[in-house]
Design a protein that fits this description.
656 residues, six-stranded mixed β-sheet, 23% strand, alpha/beta, disordered N terminus, disordered C terminus
Length: 656
């Protein structure tokens, strides 16, 4: 049966794809808000009623994020019916549950709607996510939808390394680690798909948009089931998955277009696996009062789609929703971090291959830890944990100076200056060999700006790097990895001198209570500027007081600045750089900062005095708050505390 492959039709035809699917909510109206039971009708649970149909089992997980041992503590207990609590998580336990669920089922598929790797558990995150792929291979995953985090490196990395197992630079250090059997990484035994993630340059899908699986039917016949895949809209602008060369198309249009094409090809059973989510109550195996983008799509998606499996929001629910024709279909999500294995049972008409909706059932099974863990998967987890521990302890450099986040009277810190210097260095390094995103003729940078305490979100700076008593104290890989970053790429782009000036002015802003807060930006060592603390916010930095490589800032000039994607796109409360041009993505912070330490060999003291104050003096009070005589109660914004909490919680927190 034909597949779309990487055709251009989505970009050209998306706008017209909603025809016939129903833009309105349909005849069921408001009643859809409460959903129905997780069985379309009582007949779905009656063995006599389902006899004679082709039974198909769909098992699904979502948003594993590399948590192979167990979820983080906050996600390790989930609540079911009647308030019953379940301790959950871990792929070794999941393997045991999967084996029991699959037993006796001839037609069974195991899949996931995205964000399986690129997570925050140390072994997976630091070993190129190869531990996650080995575990999923061992679990027998059949296929997956690309979530936004599957694009955290690059689309080329997803296809060429994670799928195909092709090596890239740094074998044994940044990729291609020995697996639990001693073999070199060979890639996934399953494929990734997305119908709406396309190349910004060509409009072609970067992955196949859908695929067809086959099930056995009486008389030696085989029946097709089509699976459509969607990536969260706007993934190319998310902080971690910022991709200048990627575009995501409208989800509803892409889903309906794929459903129509599958129907043309004779497929009468269609499943939508989408990496976009919803919320529908707190009980993981029921659902009520749903809301969110996946819910809005579910109300309108083509009636030819029989099942909608979601992810991305890290929620859990299990319910039936009517399609635009009023027929119920499963609408489900399976939590995150290995909490749940969802199970949907379809019954196909053996003659037509169509889903008999009235006989459809769905249940979310908690991945409880009260069963015997699978020995093979436990061996996989133990292997990677041990390898990561050895990797973590490896010395990658030495240091002769201490670096702290504590701010000077001008809002400067040695740790901030070190990180700004790293960012400028990183912009000059060659890209990942699998990075196929567009790059301007000059993709380096003239200066770096790093948000030390953004008003929204968290700082890229996690910890201090104090030196020990020895002259050349070793810096382990783990110390460098935990000190800086949360999986966010650095991005350089062209901005005007006026935008740089505005960014410096936006360090001061009033909060909702009218209190002036200061969100300092660290600058690279080739920058010097002063501000007048006695002047009002918005008029504290004169362009003539800003120097880059010894030359005064020209508001009309063009400069290339490097910063995190979070700051560049204005997602941290500093929107001045938002009109950037010709962006170039650089390596992620968690790979790049350890590489910087290794490249330097020895961390020496950084220059200070990059920022000076005139017109009034600053004073650092208790809790590190900055006070200004002209503004009696200014201080650092709340995200400082959030960043410190994240540092205590292993150095970083996930961004969905």
């Amino acid at each position: 049966m034909e597949e779309f492959g990487r055709r251009r039709f989505l970009a050209a035809g998306a706008a017209a794809a909603t025809g016939g699917a129903g833009a309105a909510a349909g005849p069921f109206g408001v009643k859809a808000l409460t959903g129905t039971a997780a069985a379309a009708t009582r007949a779905g649970r009656d063995p006599a009623s389902v006899a004679g149909y082709v039974d198909v089992q769909l098992l699904h997980i979502t948003d594993l994020h590399g948590y192979l041992s167990a979820p983080p503590a906050r996600d390790s207990v989930i609540t079911g019916a009647g308030g019953r609590a379940y301790t959950v998580g871990g792929v070794a336990y999941m393997a045991t549950h999967l084996a029991r669920l699959r037993e006796g089922r001839a037609n069974s598929f195991f899949f996931a709607p995205g964000d399986l790797f690129s997570g925050w558990e140390f072994p997976a995150f630091t070993l190129a996510d190869e531990p996650t792929i080995e575990a999923l291979n061992r679990l027998g995953l059949d296929f997956a939808t690309a979530g936004n985090h599957e694009f955290d490196r690059t689309p080329g990395f997803l296809v060429r390394h994670m799928e195909q197992g092709l090596p890239y630079e740094g074998a044994g250090w940044t990729n291609s680690f020995p697996d639990s059997g001693g073999a070199t990484f060979h890639g996934a035994d399953f494929r990734y798909y997305s119908a709406n993630a396309v190349s910004a340059a060509t409009g072609e899908t970067v992955l196949p948009p859908y695929h067809v699986e086959w099930v056995d039917a009486p008389g030696g016949r085989r029946l097709p089931i089509g699976f459509i895949h969607l990536t969260a809209l706007g993934s190319e602008f998310f902080a971690n998955s910022f991709q200048p060369g990627l575009t995501t198309l409208d989800e509803l249009s892409a889903a309906n277009l794929c459903a129509a094409r599958l129907k043309e090809l004779g497929v009468r059973a269609i499943v939508l696996s989408m990496h976009d989510g919803a919320v529908a109550g707190s009980d993981f195996d029921s659902g009520g009062e749903p809301s969110g983008p996946a819910y809005e799509l579910a109300l309108r998606a083509s009636p030819d789609i029989d099942v909608i499996v979601t992810g991305h929001w890290h929620n859990a629910f299990n319910m039936m929703l009517p399609d635009p024709d009023g027929r119920p279909r499963p609408f489900v999500e399976a939590g995150c971090h290995g909490q749940i294995v969802g199970e949907i049972t379809l019954r196909l008409d053996p003659g037509t291959g169509a889903v008999v909706r009235a006989l459809t059932t769905s249940v979310n099974h908690p991945n409880t830890r009260d069963v015997d863990p699978d020995p093979a998967l436990r061996e996989v987890v133990d292997h990677w944990n041990g390898h990561a521990a050895r990797h973590a302890a490896t010395a990658i450099g030495r240091q002769r100076a201490s670096f702290h986040r504590r701010l000077s009277p001008a809002g400067e810190s040695t740790m901030g200056n070190l990180v700004a210097d790293w960012a400028l260095w990183a912009a000059a390094q060659p890209p990942d060999s699998f990075d196929t995103s567009p790059r301007p003729e000059r993709s380096g940078a003239d200066l770096a700006l790093i948000a030390l305490a953004p008003r929204v979100g968290r700082s890229v700076v996690n910890t201090d790097l104090p030196a020990g008593p020895a002259l050349d104290d070793p810096v382990s890989f783990e110390r460098a990895w935990r000190a800086v970053g949360y999986g966010c790429p650095l991005v350089s782009a062209e901005v005007s001198g006026q935008q740089l000036h505005d960014a410096l002015e936006q360090q001061w802003a009033q909060d909702e209570a009218g209190v002036l807060t200061y969100a300092p930006l660290a600058v690279s060592g080739n920058v010097r500027y002063s501000f007048d603390a006695a002047r009002p916010a918005g008029d504290r930095v004169a362009p003539g007081d800003v120097f880059i490589d010894g030359a005064a800032l020209r508001p009309e000039g063009a400069y290339r600045v490097v910063t995190t994607s979070y700051t560049l796109t204005g997602q941290d409360g500093c929107p001045a750089l938002g009109g950037y041009r010709e962006p170039a993505r650089h390596r992620r912070d968690v790979e790049s900062f350890p590489a910087y330490v290794a490249a330097l060999g020895v961390l020496e003291a950084v220059s200070t005095g990059r920022v000076t104050v005139k017109g009034a003096s600053f004073a650092v009070g208790r809790e590190g708050r900055l006070t200004v005589p002209a503004d009696p109660v200014p201080g650092l914004p709340a995200p400082v505390a959030a960043a410190e909490e994240a540092a205590r919680d292993g150095g970083r927190r996930p961004v969905c």
